[in-house]
Design a protein that fits this description.
The protein is built from three helices and 16 strands. The radius of gyration is 25 Å and the shape is elongated. Strands 3-4-5-6-7-8-9-10-11-12-13-14-15-16 form a 14-stranded mixed sheet, covered by helices on one side. It has a two-stranded antiparallel sheet with strand order 1-2. The chain has 357 residues and is mainly beta. Helix content is 5%, strand content 14%.
Length: 357
């Protein structure tokens, strides 16, 4: 059958497994030797030229091509492919969301024409430097986790950026974020950061993730008065301090640090979740201190010296009647009951960055 020349097509490699799925309800055909190198083993994917969303995830695609006829495309998903170069997108000016998660991309390039792009996901690639974003002035969400980036730069010109995900890279210093007045979520977990700094312009920030770094002191957060969630676990912090302006904080993650005393939290009237497992808290006076935090619903204190008390759970519930969960166990009938064996379950790690839809 002859193909319509106006119908956009896309090629991807068809594996034996894919061929077997074509025979649903009957035994797969016998495995045959691979065809000679000069035989085309790619399948043709027919795409409606008026489509607004195109999902080409997990297709073993090696090159972005043949998308020119798609004049109305708004969302393009190319997760889990074999793409090494960003190209073939110049005509897609209607594109709002581009997802290239988990490919083999080294350079951010050839995006200048995507002036309406709002979401860009380049996580899990091989990118070493943030470049090529100069024209993306409508960008709201930028995902660059799990790359090889060692410096934050070339993002502070983005006037509408709300989410920046740079977790699991090689960043040593927080910098070049000045001017990002609209930023609400910043993810910098699993880097090599030694100091909390240069966040003064992020006055609308609501979520800050700094877990698994090399930070020894909580500091320089005084301008972040809108902060609702702070994740700073797995560092070297010994004192809870310098959080006086965080009156809206709802979740505070200080797990896996060196904290011995719970303090400087009474002003957080909205605090609901407090994660302090794997620290060095040994005195019940620290728990008594939290009585003014009337909204605390979840607390993690396992693997602290205090947790070895045989009446640990009962005492916690009596001190803090608002508790609904102690460590990994939900409270019931007013008093939490100690389960037959303790669960060595950590609080769920905060996202390296929520994946783009």
């Amino acid at each position: 059958m002859a193909e319509n020349q106006d119908t956009p097509t896309y090629k991807n490699e068809k594996t034996n497994e894919d061929q077997a799925m074509d025979h649903e309800g009957s035994p797969p055909p016998p495995v045959t030797p691979p065809p000679p190198a000069d035989v085309d083993t790619q399948e043709i994917i027919i795409v409606n030229e008026n489509t607004e969303e195109l999902d080409l995830n997990h297709g073993r695609i090696g090159k972005i091509e043949n998308l020119e006829p798609l004049k109305n495309l708004e969302r393009l998903y190319l997760r889990w492919n074999l793409i090494k170069k960003i190209e073939g997108l110049d005509t897609l000016q209607t594109l709002v969301e581009l997802e290239l998660y988990d490919n083999q991309i080294v350079v951010i390039e050839n995006l200048d024409n995507l002036v309406n792009l709002e979401i860009l996901d380049l996580s899990f690639n091989r990118i070493k430097e943030i470049t090529g974003l100069g024209n993306l002035l409508k960008l709201k969400k930028l995902f660059l986790s799990s790359n090889k980036i060692n410096e934050i730069k070339n993002v502070n010109h983005l006037p509408k950026l709300e989410l920046l995900e740079l977790g699991d890279n090689r960043i040593r210093e927080i910098k070049n974020l000045n001017g990002l007045k609209t930023l609400k979520q910043l993810y910098l977990g699993k880097n090599k950061i030694t100091k909390v700094q240069n966040l003064e312009d992020l006055t609308d920030l609501e979520i800050l993730v700094l877990q698994s770094n090399r930070i020894t002191k909580i500091e320089n957060l005084h301008e972040l008065t809108a902060l609702e969630q702070l994740y700073i676990s797995e560092n070297g912090i010994s004192v809870i301090e310098n959080l006086d302006n965080q009156i809206k904080l709802q979740t505070l993650d200080l797990a896996m640090n060196r904290i011995t005393v719970i303090e400087n939290l009474r002003h957080m009237s909205d605090l609901e979740e407090l994660w302090l497992n794997d620290n060095q808290i040994s005195e019940w006076s620290s728990i008594e201190y939290l009585k003014d935090n009337k909204k605390i619903a979840t607390i993690y204190l396992e693997r602290n010296p205090i947790a070895s008390d045989p009446a640990y759970r009962r005492k916690l519930k009596l001190c803090l009647p608002s508790l609904q969960q102690i460590d990994a166990t939900l409270c019931s009938q007013g008093i939490s009951r100690t389960p037959p064996s303790e669960h060595n379950v950590q609080p769920q790690d905060p996202p390296q960055g929520p994946a783009a839809p």
